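Dear support,

We are seeing what looks like truncated structure output for some complexes. This example has two components. We would appreciate it if you could run it in full and send us the complete token output so we can diff it against ours.
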Amino acid sequence: MNKKHIACAVVLIAIIGMVQASLTMNQRTLKMEADAAKAGMTANISSTTLTQERRQLEDLKKSSKPLIDYLNLWQPYFSAVDSPQNAELKISLKIKEDDLLTLSQKYDVVSQKNRSLPYLMRAQITFEDNYARLLNWIGRLERELPTIRISSIRVAKGTGANDLKVDMTLEQPILTAQ
Amino acid sequence: MQIFAKSVDDFKTDRKGISPPLPIYLRIVPMVFYLTIAASILLNGLFFVRYSQAGKNREMAMVRDKQVQADLAGARKERKDLENETKRASDIVAWLDASRPLQPLVVEVARSIDDDSSIVELRLDRDAENPAQIRFSMRLGSDTTRQLDVTLAKIAALRFRTFSPQQTMEKGAIDYKATLIWLDAARENAALAAPGS
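Here is the complete output from our reference environment:
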């Protein structure tokens, strides 16, 4: 092999090197284009998901609007009685306002499964008073404390001619047990 | 001045070992080399432009995806908050449905009693599992069921329907038990009731 052959070999190696470099560059370009297409597809899928999510959100907003409005309407009434002390005070004040004769009163805080209204102030009260006064008082209690629930009521004759004996269990939802 | 060829030849050094020319097919190697350089410059330039463009497109797609993902997370959070609010509202509705005032019922039952009858005991208990249902029990001091019929008609007029009624009659007293469920005719269409109404 003479110098001319060696020169030819060197030039051929250079040619192969340039071709190889071009092929490598082509592969990198193709890979980058594939990555770009994949990223574009991912963005499109995300965009479609976002559109669906927004549509569902709008549907949910429309369908739940009456409920949310209802919640907003009632929320202040539930927030107004936030603690056991507050609930007990409100019921006691209502009794004192009408000066009803109470034979017994018992207040307990109980928890319940309802996560939105986790605690209840349960009041067990026994009255003996005039028939009309008692029934009017019960009506006023249910109107002025609209979130309260009479879970049990037992009405029987009282000792006087116009008297009633009433055993009631009242339940007032409260936000905290303390 | 004239220089003789012979004299010039004399200046030349002796050349020895001059290699023979390359075969004809190897003479295209330089041409291929130059063509390769030109093609490499052209193609690599083209590849570089495509590579840069693809890189920009990828970056733009990633930025767009990131933005969309952030929006998606926001929308999902908003939906979850709304679902929680709706659940809370449903719980409130359920509570209020099961807190329908009982005083009108008690008053109506008391008013329905005629002079010749009396209520010995009236009891209303909300069902522990389903508080919207009311267990109604009443002991009437009456010799006939006419009074009971009148009282039940008054209860029905308040839109309470009686289920599973049980009635026993002893001497001068009637025991009546039933489950009462309030029927809301307007529930499906009308707006929900306002507080204190």
